[in-house]
Structure prediction request, 268 residues.
Amino acid sequence: MHYGLVTDKSSTSSDVLYMHQVGWETCEPNHSFGPAVRDHYLIHCVLDGTGEFYVGKRRYQLKKGEGFLIVPGVVTFYQADAENPWRYCWLGFNGTEARNICSQCGISMDSPIFSFEDAARIEECIYDLRKCYSLGGSGFLLLSKLYEFFSMIYNKNKVHENRADIIGMAVDFIRKNYSYGITVQQTAEHLGVSRSHLFRLFKQNMGQSVQEYLLAFKLEQAEAMLKETNMSIKEVMYSCGFNDMPNFSRQFKKAYGKPPAAYRTEKR
Prediction:
């Protein structure tokens, strides 16, 4: 079973946030979509079953009560499980505040997975959005339903303002995603805080900037790989989130006194 509805910006009379499409589907085994690029934000919520979501080199396995975000201009692919295919609903949206709203909910291009508690309520909200638009409901009513949808994600995934929480979540995000070449800006967006605010928190509590912590952690992982694995220098470089060999060698030598190849030879 499949149902989809495509709307236009005038449906909500708002440049801040407007619905682009809405729908739901019970997928056949191995049913897939993509690789594809969207020109708007798109959220899928898994109501039953399981499936996989791919973005870049990352693969996520999702089940009931979880969802994923697709951002504009990024290639993605998703597929239903062969034995327990998922049933999901989706909401496409855009607007000047779309990115900020996602950030407040704790989801972004670099952290696209979220969870929700009440699948029935999520599905009901999607149905109400479709019904409201089909019956010619006011833009204000549609907008209120959009915010109701995001409130359910926010309440489960919101980023707390506690200083220790923010630092802890930043450290956790860096440790889990350093290999993807993440930036300080991406880390701040994932947490829903400004880059300058995150910088101040790190300086005050960690004694170093976020950039300094990120670089040091990447180099620590590289140092361990050089000593403990047979990976090539280039493989180590990419595995630790670097994409420029001269810069990697320079930063490693600055931290450990020797370039990567010489350091490996000495330690073995």
About this structure: The longest helix spans residues 139-157.
